[in-house]
């Protein structure tokens, strides 16, 4: 086990440079890419998770000069990544999801019908601030930008009576073909993944505002986070199933009446949401974000997560439960990103973090061991890693050479 971790650690140090990009064209700062087929791509949550993994790796380097040099490289590219998103923040507060050297807004996020960048920016800023990487001017720029982005999300989500956030479209949501968002009507899916990430980002933003002496911003972020936590608990946890679900908010549309007839006058949809009962790894993100109650977490883990007929495998957590009709972990579609069952390392990591948050240390240790074995075996066989893996065989399915959040395995330490 330790040999596999040592091999992956050395591999990470040797290959990290492949994710480091020099300023190119309109991308005037150094930045991080995911590696493999995504070379020279600056993605939002990908760059954040890469930065978190690399900073942890940097802290474990024993030789002092190498540690300092590696840390400086990581911080320069991580800070360049985050600041670049705000270099191209639009007038309505939206920020790009993906930038490449010849296009600084691939998914046209300034279009109010589209999604804006996935909510990791305050968490990213907190990571950098924890390592003393931001000067006063950068802190001011980021806090202003993060506040504008939060207000943009409120405006674009239209904040239905449930107070949950919705995807404006199914484009570039990160978990691309998740059935509770993919192929659904615009502005209909209050996705649990989206809402948990927003909550975590609001919490991080409130902490930064407090650190940086901005009480008005702190109060804004704190109040938004508290309101969202209440909404997620109220509308997304299914008491009968014992699991968190994404929900459909289309029922909040006002029903037309019929002229002089008052047949439907009192039949408005007071229930606000309908659960989209699709068992997915995102159902466990309320544990990662510390939203779930201890009683909810107990049910989620024991009744669902550890069930090998649904989520649990010797290689990690299925991204879609095996008993869902959409379960197709090895299907090849038009997008190489498949979330219909494969094991992703980001899935394993965030679920592991949630288990740790709620004291499931034994289960967290086993998941960490399974993940380390999965990647260690892949590296031993191929000399590189894959983007995601078969939940049935542990074999890499797609994206040979992918690095990025795979490196988070080195944060999944055994107690």
Task: Tell me about this structure.
The protein is globular. The longest helix has 24 residues, at 64-87. It has eleven helices and 13 strands. It has helices at 2-15, 44-59, 64-87, 121-130, 136-157, 192-211, 215-236, 285-288, 294-305, 345-357, 361-382, and strands at residues 20-21, 31-32, 42-43, 98-99, 189-190, 237-238, 243-244, 246-248, 274-276, 312-313, 316-317, 388-389, 396-398. It is mostly helical and 415 residues long. The mean pLDDT is 93. The two termini are 14 Å apart. The strands form six sheets. It has a three-stranded antiparallel beta sheet, covered by helices on one side. The protein has a two-stranded antiparallel ribbon with strand order 1-2. Strands 3-4 form a two-stranded antiparallel ribbon. Helix 4 crosses helix 6 (192-211).
């Amino acid at each position: 086990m330790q040999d596999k971790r040592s091999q992956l650690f050395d591999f990470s140090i040797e290959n990290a440079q492949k994710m480091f990009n020099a300023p190119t064209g309109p991308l005037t700062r150094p930045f991080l890419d995911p590696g493999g087929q995504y070379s020279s791509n600056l993605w939002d949550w990908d760059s954040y998770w890469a930065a978190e993994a690399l900073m942890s790796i940097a802290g474990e380097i024993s030789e002092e000069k190498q540690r300092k040099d590696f840390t400086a490289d990581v911080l320069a590219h991580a800070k360049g990544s985050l600041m670049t998103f705000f270099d191209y923040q639009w007038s309505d507060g939206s920020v790009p999801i993906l930038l490449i050297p010849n296009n600084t807004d691939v998914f046209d996020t300034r279009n109010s019908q589209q999604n804006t960048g996935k909510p990791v920016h305050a968490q990213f800023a907190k990571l950098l601030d924890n390592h003393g990487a931001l000067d006063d001017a950068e802190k001011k720029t980021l806090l202003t930008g993060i506040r504008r982005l939060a207000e943009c999300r409120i405006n674009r989500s239209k904040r239905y009576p449930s107070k949950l956030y919705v995807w404006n479209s199914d484009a570039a949501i990160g978990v691309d073909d998740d059935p509770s968002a993919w192929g659904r009507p615009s502005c209909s899916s209050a996705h649990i993944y989206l809402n948990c990430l927003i909550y975590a980002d609001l919490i991080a933003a409130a902490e930064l505002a407090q650190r940086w002496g901005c009480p008005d911003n702190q109060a804004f972020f704190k109040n938004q986070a508290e309101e969202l936590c209440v909404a997620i608990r109220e509308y997304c946890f299914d008491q009968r199933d014992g699991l968190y679900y994404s929900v459909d908010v289309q029922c909040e549309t006002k029903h037309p009446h019929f002229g002089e007839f008052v047949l439907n006058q009192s039949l408005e949809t007071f229930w606000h949401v309908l659960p989209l009962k699709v068992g997915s790894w995102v159902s466990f993100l309320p544990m990662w974000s510390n939203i779930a109650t201890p009683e909810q977490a107990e049910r989620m883990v024991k009744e669902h997560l550890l069930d090998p007929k649904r989520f649990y495998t010797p290689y990690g957590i299925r991204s879609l439960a095996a008993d869902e009709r959409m379960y197709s972990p090895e299907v090849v579609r038009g997008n190489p990103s498949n979330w219909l069952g494969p094991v992703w390392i980001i899935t394993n990591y965030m679920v592991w973090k949630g288990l740790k948050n709620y004291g499931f240390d034994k289960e967290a240790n086993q998941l960490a061991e399974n993940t380390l074995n999965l990647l260690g075996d892949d590296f031993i066989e191929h000399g590189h890693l894959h983007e995601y893996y078969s939940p049935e065989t542990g074999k890499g399915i797609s994206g040979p050479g992918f690095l990025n959040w795979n490196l988070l395995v080195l944060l999944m330490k055994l107690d």
